Amino acid sequence: MPVRAEPSPPFPTLGIGMDSCVIPLRHGGLSLVQTTDFFYPLVEDPYMMGRIACANVLSDLYAMGITECDNMLMLLSVSQSMPEEEREKITPLMIKGFRDAAEEGGTAVTGGQTVVNPWIIIGGVATVVCQPNEFILPDSAVVGDVLVLTKPLGTQVAVNAHQWLDNPERWNKIKMVVSREEVELGYQEAMFNMATLNRIAAGLMHTFNAHAATDITGFGILGHSQNLARQQRNEVSFVIHNLPIIAKMAAISKASGRFGLLQGTSAETSGGLLICLPREQAARFCSEIKSSKYGEGHQAWIVGIVEKGNRTARIIDKPRVIEVLPRGATVTPLAPENSSAASESSL
Amino acid sequence: MPVRAEPSPPFPTLGIGMDSCVIPLRHGGLSLVQTTDFFYPLVEDPYMMGRIACANVLSDLYAMGITECDNMLMLLSVSQSMPEEEREKITPLMIKGFRDAAEEGGTAVTGGQTVVNPWIIIGGVATVVCQPNEFILPDSAVVGDVLVLTKPLGTQVAVNAHQWLDNPERWNKIKMVVSREEVELGYQEAMFNMATLNRIAAGLMHTFNAHAATDITGFGILGHSQNLARQQRNEVSFVIHNLPIIAKMAAISKASGRFGLLQGTSAETSGGLLICLPREQAARFCSEIKSSKYGEGHQAWIVGIVEKGNRTARIIDKPRVIEVLPRGATVTPLAPENSSAASESSL
Q1: pLDDT higher for B304 or B345?
Q2: Comparing A11-25, A98-112, B65-79, B93-107, which segment has the lowest mean pLDDT?
Q3: What is the DSSP string of A25-77?
Q4: Membrane-spanning regions, if any (chains A, B) (predicted)?
């Protein structure tokens, strides 16, 4: 399976909203909300790749606090450069992963398009018809709000470091800061996180009165924070103090000199929601999302605050790195300089 | 601009409907209808390519008699193998063509996704929320109905023959039956037809009580007729007697031995609607669509009948070829064997 991830320059969106377009309909106050995304495989497991692609598409709806999706279309290309036998094994697995994730999101895939292309492509379209109370426009942050992030950062670093296990030149640059096992664990953790739906978080946005949100993908946490800040109606700006990062990925990013993970510019795939919440609600949000009633693996961190400002976003000079331990980890890694082994933090 | 067209095996559609999926909504009897298509450039003019891609996406809605579209998303890849200068000239033209055609269809493009890929990709998603009377399910053909086709066949032959002007080996096979000028005219005519919206035809489906319809694309007229026949509630079958074909394309198809145009298996891009109409309405449909109130270039032909049968479709042994003259043609081409120079026909 070719492993290739390109950052996707997002197409200009003219509708209301940032992550999805919102179109007022001719029928009784309803709005059409939809979004599309497609990209290239970045993990080796085709089933997980299907799940990730679906989670990534739905994430744009979830970023608006939408928890239902009326329909999904799948966009797929099978690779002409892949032997037919391999293609016939891999394609159904990708499709199954996509469909399973859609089902987990309470929706179904009822159409799409498949073509032949040099690279494998997987993606989709998510569409819902909403009443006004079903979505939260991402424009109402106020001074004093707190920023919460619902997945750890570092997915691109994890995916690349995993590829470098087979590339001695690249591996030599990072082997002083990380073991092969830690790379493997980080990769598994990244894959698991990318395949996790942001649906629980979307539902809790309503419970805890979120004022705005976006999801973290190709522009990294800083880029998406800046985009979100620009949308605000009030004169606010976002300041990020804490970076929850999959364990060891900050060290790899520094040693390789490639990603800018600590600067917030490392791309993420199917990342978490960044949510502006009233200060008193933020800790309750973080505690609620971990509750066992929502199943395993949901977590959230307070990462910053909303100040008065001119609709920009920044990361402080020496942000606190919160090393998020992979689920599979049995040994606590040595805490690297400038980080903390805590898995949660508050300001 | 790389010229490449692959037939796109359609993804299994689980919703009601054939060309679009139809999803009942939670809100007051409304349905969500949507469709997606993407492919690779097949004409050299990027602006026209954008128009064709948009017309092709919308065609799946039009095939259900839907004339409105609430929203379009654009799917695009820019080619990594193209020099940046060329890319920056071509991409905005494709986007403009797509947007202009959307506007002509009374809708707008409000989102999408752009990626980098070895090949250029262009396509989109069309979505509408409908009341039940806005669409016509393609399942109610009755014995005695007549089949009407709203664009001439032969687009793939025209596109390929045009490429062969620069390929001596291929050109030698067809130069006995066609002149360079005729190939040029046929290509222009094909491009014009592919870029024409089926919207007028979709509106007239309601006026003249259409019983079923589909649009002709990758499977050729025979393949799509068979698909449509399979959907019917009554025990009917479709028999095609006439093939309206862009002038000279039948001769090229025969001489090259490649397309199966006369067998109905030559792929079309953004082809016409094939509509089952009550016999007494069919001629009126064909006459109305040519009316000057709908602008230039709309035409339709009666191509077959609906008989009692087991939900199959076939083309008769020696179908009548209706040579459709390109708009730019000034001289009547010699009528080839087994064809007629008439531009319209009835049974």
Answers
A1: B304
A2: A11-25
A3: -SSTT-EEEEEEEEE---SS-HHHHHHHHHHHHHHHHHTTT----SEEEEEEE
A4: none
* ipTM for this model: 0.81
Total Cβ atoms within 10 A of residue B224: 24
CB interface of A with B, residues 55-74, below 8 Å:
70-71, 73-74
C-alpha dihedral sign at B254, B260, B263, B269: negative
Task: Decide: A7 and B116 in contact? Cβ < 8 Å.
Answer: no
B residues 252..311 contacting A (CB < 8 A): none
pLDDT at residue A100, rounded to an integer: 98
- Across the interface, which of A110, A116, A118 has its CB nearest the CB of B21? A110
Lowest mean pLDDT across B112-116, B140-144, B198-202: B112-116
Count Cβ neighbours within 10 Å for each residue of B178-210 and write b for 16 or more, e otherwise.
beeebbbbbbbbbbbbbbbbbbbbbbbbeebeb
List the structure tokens of A29: 């106050």
Q: Is B5 within 8 Å of chain A by CB? A: no
Per-residue model confidence (pLDDT) at position A331? 53
Q: How confident is the model at residue B188 (pLDDT cuts 50, 70, 90)?
A: very high
d(CA B179, CA A65): 61
Is-contact B181 B46, C-beta < 8 A? no
Cβ of A108 under 8 Å from any chain B Cβ? yes
Nearest alpha carbon to residue A133 among A237, A205, A57, A223: A205
Q: With a CB-CB cutoff of 8 Å, which residues 20-39 of chain A face chain B?
A: 20-21, 23, 25-28, 30, 32, 34-39
Q: Report mean pLDDT in 10-residue bins for chain A, 347 residues.
A: 34 52 88 93 96 97 97 94 92 97 96 91 96 94 98 98 95 95 96 97 98 96 96 97 98 94 96 98 97 90 98 97 85 49 41
Residue with tokens 């005219």: B185
Compute the distance between CA of residue A209 and CA of residue B147 in angstroms, rounded to an integer.
57
Q: Side-chain half-sphere of B33: how many Cα atoms within 13 Å?
A: 32
Q: Residue A253's closest CA among A241, A239, A268?
A: A268
Instruction: Compare all CA atoms of chain A with the CA of B57 and give the residue at the minimum distance.
Output: A113
Can you tell me which residue has the tokens 């009548």?
A: B320
